[in-house]
Structures are given as structure tokens and as C-alpha cells.
Design goal:
Layout lengths: L4 H17 L15 H17 L4 E7 L3 H7 L5 E6 L3 E2 L4 E2 L8 E10 L10 H7 E11 L10 H6 L4 E6 L15 E6 L2 E7 L8 H13 L9 E6 L4 E2 L5 E6 L3 E7 L1
Parallel strand pairs: 1-10, 3-7, 4-13
Antiparallel strand pairs: 1-2, 5-6, 5-10, 5-11, 6-7, 8-9, 8-12, 12-13
Helix pairs in contact: 1-2, 4-6
The structure holds 2-oxoadipic acid and magnesium ion.
Length: 262
């Protein structure tokens, strides 16, 4: 850790205000080049603490920058992890208000709910498979608080990995009914295909993102409790949206998830 607790608290407030006011800011490493990974996650933890103190429940975890398409789009090479709050959830088929966001982009994500606790370090794929209750599709609406989505990994970790909104689909499936590697995903914007991929785009297997999350938490003395909702990260590059757009994502064997931006 290179930042003082006061600086961490100040940066958490700065980034949370940018989110709540939908106003972009410059990436925080410009002012704090010495910031390390622990500082970055400490800022994210402080944002989470602030939200929970205001009564907003943490309802899930997310992995980000897990697909090769996303890593290439953002010019980075390591997955990152963040949290999801209750107020970020929107109903399937509903409306997303763009006036509350800076420059939203959509991502198609394969998600899971767990039925057993996972604790790293040393957590592996078989343990994760045994802990999966069911698989659900979702769309994440990311909204970096950084101007033009220009950031480095530490800045984006501090900014809770651009988490803003998410829409969970209504069809759930058991893991053994699916082949998560070959599961096809087609992302349509305004009736036209904008991107497509298969599950293997996410780290070779989407559950690898859950393995990494459990090991990441374990390294920090935390676990992923039973009943956790986890988003494994966008399978394709993120697609920019604006008011008037309609997004529909077709997930093989898992139905569709749609929403309108107003
Ligand atoms: C960071 C968040 C990425 C994903 O699914 O890859 C993410 C960003 O690109 O702003 O959520
Ligand atoms: Mg995402």
C-alpha cells in the first residue's frame, strides 16, 4: 500500500460522486502514479463500504476483462473483480435511463449462482463446478467514470470495474445441461448483429473467472459465500449504446435478455 487511509477515502468519495452525478473524471493514477493493486482494491472496498452504510446491499460479484476481445478493446491483459449493488439491477425487458449514466456500453455475460462457499487460494475448476447451483444469462451495462473509457487497470479496479447496471435473464439451467465452452452468444443492437462469441472466449472457460475470483478473494482473507451471483465477464467487446437503442442478446440454451435505452 502506498496511499494513506485519507487519500483512499478521498478517492472513493471522488469516484462514487462521479458515478452518482454521472460526471466523468480523469483517471486517478494521473495524480497518484504510485498507487498499487492493494490501494486500488482498498478504494473499491471503501466505495462498497460507503454504499452499504447508505443501505445499498451488495448482491453479487463480477469479473471483468476476462475475454480476449475485452482485453484487446481496453488494451490490458489481466482480469479484474468488482461488486454489484442492488440498485444496479434492472428487470428483463425493461428500460435503462441513459441520463443517469455517462457513456454506457453493453456486455453479454454468462453468470452463475453458487450453492457452496468457495475459498482460495488453490481453488480449482472442479471445486467451482461442484459449487455451481445454476447458470443464468445477463447483460451488464458498464459505465466507466473515466473520460472516454481511458484508464489503466488500477484506475478501473478503484472505479469498481465500471459497474453501473445489469439485467439478469429469466431462464436458468443446471451446469450439466450446458457446454459453457461452446455456448453461443449473439448480441443484437436495433435488430442487427453487433457482436458474437462462444463461452470459451472468456479465459477458455467462463468458470475460470469464478476460480480466479475465489483465489483473488482468498488471497485477501475473504471467501465467496454460498448463494453468490457471479458475472464472469463480457464474452465479446463492449458495445456503446445511447437513448433510443434496443439491445437483445440471444444465449444458446439460456434464452434472450433484452432492454431498451431511454
Ligand atoms: C471494465 C469492466 C469490464 C467485463 O465484463 O469485461 C467488464 C471496462 O471495460 O470498463 O465488466
Ligand atoms: Mg462486465
Amino acid at each position: 500500500m502506498n496511499l494513506t487511509p485519507q487519500t483512499i477515502a478521498g478517492l472513493a468519495e471522488h469516484l462514487e460522486s462521479a458515478e452518482l452525478l454521472a460526471r466523468d473524471v480523469t483517471k486517478i493514477t494521473d495524480e497518484h502514479p504510485g498507487m498499487d493493486w492493494d490501494d486500488a482494491y482498498a478504494i473499491q472496498d471503501e466505495i462498497r463500504r460507503r454504499k452499504e452504510a447508505h443501505g445499498q446491499r451488495t448482491v453479487g460479484m463480477k469479473a471483468g476483462l476476462t475475454s480476449f476481445a475485452k482485453m484487446k478493446q481496453m488494451g490490458v491483459d489481466t482480469p479484474v473483480f468488482g461488486f454489484l449493488s442492488d440498485y444496479m439491477s434492472r428487470p428483463e425487458g425493461g428500460e435503462i435511463r441513459t441520463s443517469e449514466l455517462i457513456h454506457p456500453k453493453v456486455e453479454a455475460e454468462i453468470c452463475v449462482v453458487t450453492k457452496a462457499a468457495l475459498k482460495g487460494p488453490g481453488c480449482h475448476l472442479a471445486q467451482v463446478m461442484a459449487a455451481i447451483d445454476f447458470v443464468v444469462p445477463a447483460v451488464e451495462i458498464i459505465d466507466s467514470r473515466y473520460r472516454d473509457f481511458k484508464f489503466d487497470l488500477k484506475s478501473v479496479v478503484a472505479d469498481n470495474t465500471s459497474a453501473a447496471r445489469f439485467v439478469v435473464g429469466s431462464r436458468m439451467r443446471a451446469l450439466d445441461e450446458l457446454d459453457l465452452r461452446t455456448l453461443g452468444v449473439v448480441l443484437e443492437k436495433n435488430g442487427q448483429i453487433a457482436a458474437m462469441a462462444a463461452g470459451a472466449a472468456v479465459l477458455g472457460h467462463p468458470l475460470t473467472a469464478v476460480v480466479m475470483l475465489a483465489n483473488h478473494l482468498g488471497a485477501r482473507g475473504q471467501e465467496l459465500p454460498a448463494g453468490s451471483f457471479v458475472m464472469t465477464g463480457g464474452v465479446t467487446e463492449a458495445i456503446a449504446v445511447q437513448a433510443g437503442d434496443h439491445v437483445n442478446v440471444r444465449f444458446q440454451d439460456l434464452g434472450s435478455v433484452s432492454m431498451r435505452f431511454v
